[in-house]
Write a structure and sequence with these properties.
The protein has 186 residues and is an all-alpha fold. Helices cover 77% and strands 0% of the residues. The protein is elongated and about 55 Å long.
Length: 186
Amino acid sequence: MGTRADAVAATRERIARTTLRLLLAQPYEEVTLADIATGAEVSHQTVLNHYASKEGAASAAIELLRSETEGLRTSARRGDPTHAVEVLAEQYERFGDLNVRWAMSAERLGRLAALLDHARAAHRTWLEEVFEPYLPSAPADRRRSLNALHAATDVYTWKLLRRDLGLSRPETTHTMTALVRGVLNT
């Protein structure tokens, strides 16, 4: 029985990883169930049997993305702005274009749009944990600092610097680190 369960789990993961790979390459609206099935080397019906819809497969793919992102972010050293921004830069280099596309098309994503809210909340929690030593204790000041940190480290800031202004990765990281240090007064 374990072999069957292992095969089912492997198929589910292959479908989710294929969906993620497709989402990294193109907008959600352009990804089809047929593309997912072909890429995962399964039938269209197998994708539906495992995830019920394209939305279900995309949700599984985003869960993989969330897990990988969380794994990267746990390596950030608490209280070290330079390292924290380097960790974010690594994440954004891997997944930033997808994050931006998802955020820009949120109104067309239906139930998947809620995943963006969860991602924003997780980012804010991460900021609060990583920069705790520098954050003010007064609630209003703390909230303002977290809002500024969020803006300084958001994927849109990375996109502006990296994609729109054409900065190199080191220049982008340096600029974002300067923004974070400015907020933290370090």
